[in-house]
Specification:
nine-stranded antiparallel β-sheet, single chain, 1 helix, mainly beta, twelve-stranded antiparallel β-barrel, 21 strands
Length: 347
């Protein structure tokens, strides 16, 4: 460490000591520019730290790679680039700001590099305070044939120190009038995901989902699957998770030409997110289902979305979904796709 760096650390230490009493109840951030922010740090996610201050009507969002010092007294779930998970408070080491000391709630101290912290979020004792909600809706009206389309998406998440739950639901309703009749197109999907983190970046996955699609003549396709996965890439710019396992599917059709059936499947899954794009976030998911009980059958569910964040927790999202089946129902196409533009809110 050169003399210039030592001098900066001495000055910063003096400043932090001088303000320790007056800001003892505040979280602290210090940036490379030597700016200091005091307030209540909420989380680090997707490379951005959110902090609420007394002198601003909305949260500050600070790029984490600009932070050189951090001090938080409340208890957080902390995840590192190595996949290690801790639960406790932490602050930068007094004589080496490149490292932080984590005081685990269960006792003991752990020392990690500041740049290796990938995610943190306060884990409240209350069940309701651990919930995360995302809601978006879209509506289109065309004068010709009075064509109307309504779409909506809902996602509810719950996070604890070892588990993560997601409950999601989406729907599309399209109506078009003609001189003789009104045609209706419907599509509904939803499901529940449970992840249990085992060790480092490995997790156990349980997922139950359903799909109704008038385009594919599906009155209902329900799918229950379980397996294991790993985040093979996880840093401040992107995440890539892979998973594999087995699934059981039940399919019921909306006409008399197709009989309902059960089938066993294997599955391979990939989940990819890029968030080093300013206010943009690009996310993609893909599930591949080679059948174990129907010779030659292969299905895929693919989704890609682009999300842009506005102030006041409002966002706009472009979403494309494709469902493919090489052995579809009699009289149905082998694919169904949806392109949505929705406006949403994420408190």
């Amino acid at each position: 460490m050169n003399s210039n760096s030592c001098f900066k650390i001495i000055l910063l230490s003096i400043f932090l000591l001088a303000t320790q009493i007056s800001f003892s109840q505040k979280d602290t951030l210090v940036m490379k520019s030597n700016e200091k922010v005091f307030g209540e740090i909420k989380q680090l996610d997707n490379g951005v730290v959110k902090i609420e201050t007394d002198y601003s009507d909305k949260d500050f969002q600070i790029e984490y790679d600009k932070v050189i010092y951090i001090n938080m007294a409340r208890h957080f779930l902390i995840i590192t680039t190595e996949g290690d998970r801790y639960y406790g408070s932490f602050k930068s080491k007094r004589n080496d700001f490149s490292k932080v000391v984590i005081e685990e709630k269960t006792g003991g101290q752990v020392e990690v590099n500041l740049k290796d912290i990938l995610f943190f979020q306060e884990i409240e004792d209350s069940f309701w305070q651990r919930l995360d909600v995302e809601l978006s809706v879209g509506y289109t009206l065309t004068k010709a044939n009075n064509n109307q389309q309504f779409s909506g998406n809902f996602d509810l998440g719950y996070l604890s120190d070892k588990t993560k739950y997601n409950l999601y639901f989406g729907m599309i309703r399209s109506f078009q009038e003609s001189d003789e009749f009104t045609s209706t197109i419907t599509r509904t999907n939803g499901g529940f995901i449970y992840r249990r983190f085992i060790v480092q970046d490995w997790f156990m996955l349980l997922n139950a989902d359903f799909l109704q699609s008038s385009e594919q003549k599906l009155a209902l396709r329900s799918n229950i699957k379980g397996g294991v996965g790993n985040y093979v890439v996880k840093n401040l710019k992107m995440n890539l998770g892979l998973a594999a396992g087995v699934a059981w599917a039940y399919e019921d059709y909306s006409d008399d030409l197709n009989d309902s059936k059960n089938s066993a499947e294997a599955f391979l899954a990939a989940d990819f997110i890029i968030f080093d794009l300013g206010d943009l976030e690009l996310a993609s998911k893909c599930f591949a289902y080679p059948s174990l009980t129907e010779a030659g059958r292969f299905r895929t569910d693919f989704n890609i979305s682009v999300k842009y964040d506005f102030p006041l927790d409002i966002f706009i999202k472009l979403n494309y979904t494709l469902n493919y089946d090489n052995q579809p129902a009699i009289g149905a196409p082998n694919s169904d796709y949806v392109f949505q533009t929705t406006l949403g809110w994420e408190p």
